[in-house]
Amino acid sequence: DLPARSWRSRSLWDAEPTWPVGNGMAEDLLDGPQDQRLLAYRATYRRDGQTITINVAQDYTPILKSFAQVRLSGLGLVGLALLVLLLLQRYAVKLAMRPLERARQQIAQLQQGQRQQLDVQAPVELQPLVEQINHLLAHTDDTLKRSRHALGNLGHALKTPLAVLGSLVRHEELAAHPDLQRNLEQQLEQIQQRVSRELGRARLAGEVLPGSYFDCAKELAPLFETLRMIHRRDLELRWHTHENCRLPWDREDMLELLGNLLDNACKFARSEVRLQIEQLDDGYLITVDDDGPGIPEARREAVLERGTRLDEHAEGHGLGLGIVRDILAAWRGELSLEESELGGLCVRIRLGVHSQRS
Q1: 0.85 exceeded by the pTM?
Q2: Quick check: is 45 in a domain?
């Protein structure tokens, strides 16, 4: 630029950039032709008494595009690095929590009756916890065994005095007082029933043994053989369970439960008794069917009451359902009486694993 004349580069076309006022580099990029961004520089010279101003601009658009690509690449790399770090962190946390997960699985196995104690090989931080849990399990098991042993001794100790009292009640001296003799016999029978009931309820393991289980394949065969020997009738006794049937409940309690159900079914059956154990999503369904006379629907609720039975001349107390009811109360199970497809009574028991040891 001269005072009286200016020259323009053809590359500017008709664009009119806002050139910097002072000498030096422009503070901002200028708008150029075809949406270009220009980096401008201004210099002033004086020759032969004239002031000459020169403005030079360079297209900065390719560099800006390169910066944008570098920025996007950087963001992508940073995002990828964060993702890798998150995955590594998750793996590290999972690796650190693996002993706890293993302990959780072992506790679940305890609930299912697949083990008796936790593995003692554990990290130093978990070793005291594992040892205390194992000690508690062993102590609980020992306490229950001693309690059952003591209750057994108590039951045997009471049998003799009760038998003596029963003999005295039937003594000739009391025959002259029939009303007194009858009242004494009734009271003595109530004492015997109450003692048997309370001893039976006290010996229930309930939910205190997470490592206990009932192996169907091992226990049902001798149970059915015992029933055949007791009843000595031409009964067809059948049982069916799913493969590898292991019920996560105390062995003695389960034998008490199934024994009472099957024993009473055998008493009233004509020719056939059937036991079926099914595994459900949330527990187990135990079904005992017989082809006996059955129970009218109107009487089924009454039969569930302790001491009530249809046939007052048959042995047993309330079809054995009183003892069954006590066991199910400890296990929070459900009992229902229905008509069997065999023509007799169908006893259904639903046991939920989720509530067994919650």
Answers
A1: no
A2: yes
